Write a sequence for this structure.
């Protein structure tokens, strides 16, 4: 069935009041503009408060925009909900929940995996423990760990607050995260004992989004409360809020209500589903659009639960979750609070969290200044639906203020800041690239497009990637900054006084400058040159041996131990490199799901190649010392091969292959 036909099967809208329309992708833009001109976005009541004139406007808005966006991104099913203050304005579904059964989405009953929105639940639990005096935000997280200890390579401790704000500097790691069955799920303490996190950067300096930080916070909840993470979230958050259709571990009886995750492959939609993971505190909640209205109202109403239940959070704690924030530069309009990302302008501040899981995409956004919350989740792999829908919603219902933006004020030239400007050009790598600098997952960066060039111009402007930024506020408390004339995004640089590395920050993004030997191009040339050299030397040796056999009736004698070991090392390196990189290197899911047989074979070949290379070095050196075999001048081919094998061993060590 074609997607636009699927989208006609919208489930019943349930609301106490309702909604309206805005901007879409190109082919929808004019129709949406006309729809917007027809109805005023906000009305002022007698008490002076600003809000939607009618809940019906919300429904008109989404009905106009959502079906077309779903078609653009090949999303078979979507649910959404809107709350204003303590009132539910809208709960609605679009499209199909199950492709095989062609079952229309029911926003009241169908479960969608909200992925990283789970982190807000984890943060809420941590803040409950802070209220109870059982956890301190500024405490070293090691104070709460039982079965393992995280090494401290830096003077600054890795605090609970840094984990909540994604400034901990912790390494991400996806090895063994995806399970074949919920029955394979292991306690967080047991998982971390076998996969102890490492710290890659000093805490509190740059914001780098990581799943592992919230997995670690989930273990803190278990260690402090004496309950499993799942039991704590259920009894302290889901039950008080009346979220009866929300699950971290889906019962078999509810699987029929799970909206099937999907992906668009080879011109058709296919089901995508990961049964379970070890990342529950970070990404595993399944819930309904109806249940999410209770969670959003929690934050818009000072932590109140539903009915007569005790408050889930104190009002001061809710306020702290919105105000205890980190931004890279004082001029930045975005940053990270207690789990929430924020975006601000002169009129309001929006707090949001997205979710990205194989087969599902989600977003929750709260605008407390407008008493407004919105949530949506859809099945699909294309995340491009979020931005046009979010921007249209904010334009229509934000009540003015425009997008988050700085006022760009060109105020200095390179003449006064030439030394600093000259220090920043180079190649930079984005720090949010799903990398682990301590495990084999580092290999994912090798063909990653996460590098960007930074170029400084004579007029003081700086270009990062394809964005040119003009200088603003050179003497402010955050140091020199550059701004995007179109969006107001603030770019800044700083040098770490400990390791000397230069960092670039652009709103919520961060990069670090690469030395020449860290660049992907350097490593691709390195491995390509050495692999080609080994292949050429092996081919040359095989050709000579074949030629000797044809010209001589006597069979050549066996090779010397030195020659045999060097040849074997070269062959093993060829096998290892080709198995890793051809046709493609392993990606994030390859590590999370468990390495495929060809990658495991390649790892074994690499380890064997390292062992044989070391053995060949010893045998060749000893033979040369004993004068039983020629040195580099007598056997240049063999020694060149040995040198190439050693170079590949160093390369493999850099990428944590061995």
């Amino acid at each position: 069935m074609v997607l636009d036909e699927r989208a006609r099967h919208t489930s019943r809208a349930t609301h106490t009041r309702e909604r309206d329309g805005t901007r879409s992708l190109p082919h929808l833009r004019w129709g949406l503009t006309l729809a917007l001109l027809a109805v005023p976005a906000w009305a002022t009541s007698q008490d002076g408060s600003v809000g939607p004139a009618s809940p019906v406007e919300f429904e008109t808005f989404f009905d106009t925009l959502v079906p077309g966006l779903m078609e653009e991104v090949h999303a078979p099913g979507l649910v959404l909900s809107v709350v204003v203050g303590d009132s539910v304005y809208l709960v609605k579904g679009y499209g199909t929940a199950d492709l095989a059964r062609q079952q229309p989405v029911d926003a009241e009953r169908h479960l969608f995996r909200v992925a990283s929105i789970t982190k807000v639940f984890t943060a809420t639990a941590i803040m409950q423990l802070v209220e109870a005096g059982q956890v301190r935000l500024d405490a070293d997280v090691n104070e709460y760990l039982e079965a393992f200890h995280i090494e401290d390579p830096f003077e600054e401790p890795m605090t609970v607050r840094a984990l909540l704000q994604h400034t901990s500097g912790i390494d991400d790691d996806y090895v063994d995260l995806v399970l074949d069955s919920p029955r394979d799920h292991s306690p967080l303490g047991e998982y971390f004992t076998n996969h102890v996190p490492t710290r890659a950067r000093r805490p509190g300096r740059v914001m780098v989004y990581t799943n592992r930080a919230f997995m670690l916070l989930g273990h803190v909840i278990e260690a402090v409360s004496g309950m499993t993470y799942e039991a704590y979230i259920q009894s302290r958050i889901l039950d008080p809020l009346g979220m009866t259709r929300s699950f971290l571990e889906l019962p078999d009886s509810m699987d029929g209500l799970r909206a099937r995750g999907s992906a668009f492959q080879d011109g058709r939609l296919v089901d995508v589903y990961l049964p379970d993971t070890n990342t529950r505190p970070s990404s595993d909640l399944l819930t309904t659009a109806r249940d999410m209205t209770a969670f959003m109202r929690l934050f818009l109403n000072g932590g109140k639960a539903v009915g007569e239940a005790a408050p889930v959070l104190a009002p001061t704690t809710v306020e702290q979750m919105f105000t205890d924030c980190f931004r890279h530069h004082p001029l930045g309009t975005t940053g990270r609070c207690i789990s929430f990302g924020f975006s601000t302008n002169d009129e309001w501040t929006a707090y949001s969290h997205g979710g990205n899981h194989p087969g599902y995409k989600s977003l929750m956004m709260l605008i407390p200044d407008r008493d407004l919350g919105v949530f949506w989740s859809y099945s699909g792999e294309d995340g491009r639906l979020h931005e046009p829908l979010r921007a249209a919603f904010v334009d229509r219902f934000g009540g003015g203020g425009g997008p988050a933006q700085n006022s760009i004020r060109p105020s200095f030239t390179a003449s006064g800041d030439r030394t600093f400007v000259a220090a920043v050009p180079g190649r930079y790598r984005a720090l949010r690239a799903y990398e682990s600098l301590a495990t084999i997952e580092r290999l994912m960066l090798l063909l990653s497009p996460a590098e960007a060039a930074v170029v400084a111009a004579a007029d003081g402007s700086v270009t990062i990637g394809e964005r040119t930024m003009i200088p603003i506020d050179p003497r402010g408390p955050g140091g020199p900054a550059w701004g995007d004339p179109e969006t107001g995004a603030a770019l800044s640089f700083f040098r770490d006084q400990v390791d000397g590395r230069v960092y670039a920050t652009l709103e919520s993004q961060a990069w670090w400058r690469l030395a020449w030997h860290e660049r992907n191009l350097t490593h691709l040339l390195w491995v390509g040159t050495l692999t080609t050299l080994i292949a050429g030397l092996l081919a040359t040796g095989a050709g000579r041996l074949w030629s000797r056999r044809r010209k001589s009736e006597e069979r050549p004698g066996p090779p010397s131990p030195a020659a045999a070991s060097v040849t074997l090392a070269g062959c093993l390196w060829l096998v290892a490199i080709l198995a890793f990189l051809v046709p493609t290197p392993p990606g994030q899911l390859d590590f999370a799901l468990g390495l495929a047989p060809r990658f495991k074979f390649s790892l074994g070949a690499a380890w064997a190649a390292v062992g044989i290379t070391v053995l060949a070095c010893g045998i060749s050196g000893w033979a040369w010392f004993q004068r039983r075999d020629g040195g580099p001048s007598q056997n240049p081919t063999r020694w060149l091969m040995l040198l190439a094998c050693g170079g590949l061993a160093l390369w493999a060590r850099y990428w944590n292959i061995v």
Observations:
- Residues 520-654 form one domain.
- The radius of gyration is 29 Å.
- Residues 39 and 57 are 8 Å apart (CA to CA).
- The mean pLDDT is 80.
